[in-house]
Amino acid sequence: MHDEPIDPFNGDPADPTAGLDDPGDDATPDPLTDVERQDVLEDLADLEIYQALLAPIGVRGLVIECEDCREPHYFDWDLLRGNLRHLLNSGRPRVHEPAYDPDPDHYVTWDYARGYADGVHDTLTEGTEDEPGTPTATQ
Question: Where is this region: Disordered (predicted)?
């Protein structure tokens, strides 16, 4: 089992992205800072929660507004997880292209997913914390 999607062009001499992953020895990317690394690790942890909560109701992944091309990019759970792991390991994001004809109704933004997870958390913890003015067993 692979942690990320298999490259369909792996080993193909006609790979259209052959030169993109190997920028040369003189273009070694700067490693992620400790803060950037922690952010990616937190994104991976959040992604697990979002998938566990949203996949059962039909959400296939997340949509991200690309800063480079100003287009929405639709990522299914596994692809986004693979991209984050690649960033963590290599220090640079993968080259990406917009998905072919995705159904936007099956994708949500990071903010939506975070809000949904927060709402579920709040609902589950409602009434379990002592609220001011609520009598406890010792009062």
Answer: 1-33
